[in-house]
Amino acid sequence: MEEVPDHLDHGLQIVFIGFNPSLRSGELGHHYANPRNNFWRILEQSGLTPRLYDASEDGELLKLGHGFTNIVARPTRGAEDITREEYAKGRELLRAKLTLYRPEVACFVGKGVYTEFSRKPKADWGFQEHIEPVVDGVREFVAPSSSGLVRMPMPEIVAIYRRLYDFTHKED
């Protein structure tokens, strides 16, 4: 199965970082393509996008200052299928991408994504204010996973993503 291409560029406000693509995303070639995934609804409801986007439009979000990548590029049924070796290689690749593109914010879609990347034992929701970032100058934000399996109520998830919207629109 093909890897889902990154959508990265210089000057982005936010790069959303997942564990890895789902099998559905791998089939379609787009981020967060599983219809049970709430990612696109969360972005709209939090104000991060002006309308509800479809996964097939993921590349269009570059125009909004939003990019996409993952720690591991290989699509799998679940994160439990990712090997330690893939995580080790993926951490290095992700660090290199963040160093090269220098987004204002690296948004980790799930606490596990952040702890796997940073190797820190725990994380709070939102900006990691009291922790040295992995890539100097790139602010780290931890958001709930958008998976349909997450038990957190949708309004709570949206409220956390809204903090990211508030930060990126503070000059408005």
TrEMBL record:
Residues 6-153 form the Uracil-DNA glycosylase-like domain. Keywords: DNA damage, DNA repair, Hydrolase. Pfam families: UDG. It comes from the Bacteria. CDD domains: UDG-F2_TDG_MUG (cd10028). InterPro entries: MUG/TDG (IPR015637), Uracil-DNA_glycosylase-like (IPR005122), Uracil-DNA_glycosylase-like_sf (IPR036895). SUPFAM superfamilies: Uracil-DNA glycosylase-like. The keyword Transit peptide does not apply. This is Mismatch-specific DNA-glycosylase. It comes from Paenibacillus borealis.
